[in-house]
Amino acid sequence: MNNQIYNNQVHDTRTGFSLPDFITTYLNRAGAVVEPAGYGLFQVLLPEELVPVFGREELLLAFDYEVAGETPGSTFVSHGSPLLDTVVRLALDYGRQTALYWSGKLPATPRSLEERISARIEFRHCRPPRIEASWVAENIYYGFYFRCVFRSFEKTEAVIPVFIDGCRSLPAPAFTREAESLFLLEEPEYQASPAPIRPLADLYLVARQELGKLVQQQARPLQQTALRLQERELAKVRSYFAETEAEIRQKLAASSDPDKKARLKQQLAATQADQERRIKDTRARYQVEVDTRLDHLVAYHLPCVFVRLNLQHKTFNLAQTLIYNPLQGDIELPACPRCGRASNCLVPTAAGQLLCPECLK
Ligand SMILES: [Zn+2]
User: What are the domain boundaries of the chain?
Assistant: First the structure.
């Protein structure tokens, strides 16, 4: 979450999530010495306790595929690489984990479900969906609570929660902080089989991406104030130096002594260098930097109604599972299997997949 060192394919411009930032921030926090060693390349000296985890003392991490190929001894890091999984697992170990269970009743299959589904989701070029089966299973909504420190001319701290649906691997905006009070049990008082939950490392990465957006929103007022104060101080600095410079130039114009003139010219250059330094310092003081770390993790276990649909497109049948979330009192939008985003419209492909319209463009 620090300054971007460079951009490449691992920096997601849509969400502001940067893989090099995530890895280097974690390693720094864990006590490693991390030095940039070229484009997309970092030299890492691990602290003693991490040596057994990575199996060596030093790492040379390449975040660019070509750089990795050209740099002997480097480890290429991208989404899905084992090193990333290890770092995510270690980053999660920092957070304390708790499990809480839904204290309400088991949800029943809602009435006129087919109509509700049709009203909420469009299955383009398909006949109206038919419900093939519905059952109750336990989904897990993970609450990742991040402690964020906003540092600028003043320092503020906030805990920002990010809720992720474990089944769909998507942010769950309907899961608000009020919802937390509906999960009061440390042991479940219901019986429901577990739904398939995505690996925690994947969910954590989605939570970090979401956090990036929330942090930007939260930092905006501070950035605006900082910018105003910075402009005010820069104006003062500039006017002070403009006066000083004008005085020196006047003396310079009035003097005919070559020694004195040389001295004044030196003084002028020194003043200009001084001004540049003061401007740089002022800019740095009003930058807004944000440090984020996972403080704790809560697994909210929620029984949901799962619905398997049969969809007829031309002559073939497609299946799609949807989740009815009792907390929200509605059907959750399905995640597109290609881009992972929630969509209220799915379109069949020739290969028999259901994708969002964006992925078919
Ligand atoms: Zn898609």
Answer: 11-94, 96-215+292-360, 219-290
